[in-house]
Amino acid sequence: MEKDERIGVVTHFYNKILVAVVRLTGRLALGDRVRFHGEHTDFQQDITSMQIEHASVQEAAPGTEVALKVTQRVRQGDGLYRPPSSA
Prior knowledge:
CATH superfamily: Translation factors
CATH topology: Elongation Factor Tu (Ef-tu), domain 3
Strand content: over 45%
Distance between the termini: 14 Å
CATH class: Mainly Beta
Radius of gyration: 12 Å
C-alpha cells in the first residue's frame, strides 16, 4: 500500500472563517484531493479556495505559504498530505 505524500504543514488556523495557513513542501493546485492529519485531526477534502497574500491562485509551489479554506478544524503542526490516488 502506498503512503500519503506529505506536501505541507499547518502554521496557523483561523477558526471563525475555517482557513488554514499552510507552508508547502510540495506542489498544490485547486481541485487537488488532500488529507489533513495530526494528533487530533484526520480528514480529506478537495481544495476549493487557495490564496497567497490575499490573492486567489490556481496553484502554488513548494516553499510557498498559502491560505486554504477547510471544512473542519485543523491545528498548528498538522500535516497536509496528498493521498496516493491523487498523486
